[in-house]
Fold this sequence. Notes:
Blueprint: H1 2-31, H2 40-49, H3 52-57, H4 68-95, H5 99-102, H6 120-130, E1 134-139, H7 144-151, H8 157-167, E2 171-175, H9 182-191, E3 198-202
Amino acid sequence: VAAGAGVAVLAGACVAPALVSALVLSADLSSRGVAAGVFVPFALGLGMAAPWPLVGAGFAALPKPGAWMAHVKKAFAAIFAAMAAVYAARAWALCAPGGAAARPWSKPPAQGALKFLADETAAVELALAAGKPLLVEFSADWCSACHAMEKGTLAAPEVVAAIDGAHGRALLKIDCTDTADPAVEAALTRFGVRGLPFFAVLRPKE
């Protein structure tokens, strides 16, 4: 415990920026359904461990310290400053008053875009009355991939025509922004949703 506390005090400030960045990237990729995202911390660990065989083989194999180290420190300072600026901009776009308008995915829907219902009961009744499958979309306000999908793929004329032909107005969107909501949690579990965006097609019983 004492050794761990000592390492945290001495090395934590150096490792934390890279570790937090890797965890944020991993969470972002996983939330978009990219399975490889879970391996980002593992890759970071491999990178952190890679220099130690050289140390074990002898410090003679390492470059000699000198004035050039000052340039290395400046280069890393610039990299970390740029990363901090990027995350600050993202945080401001998400959290600042009126920040929704500043989000790149908050553009108005394209003309002729699909119209999803928010009322599950109404959507099911409409699908049954029309005798068509119900297309269900799971998305969230914090999911940039969901908004990119809606403004890109789902707004493409050929996609709109194909979905309208297969489903008509039987379209339902489930807002998963608040994952702590019991109703949202139940819906995610019922459909086995592991990442957003997620689509499901429910067909009426014959």
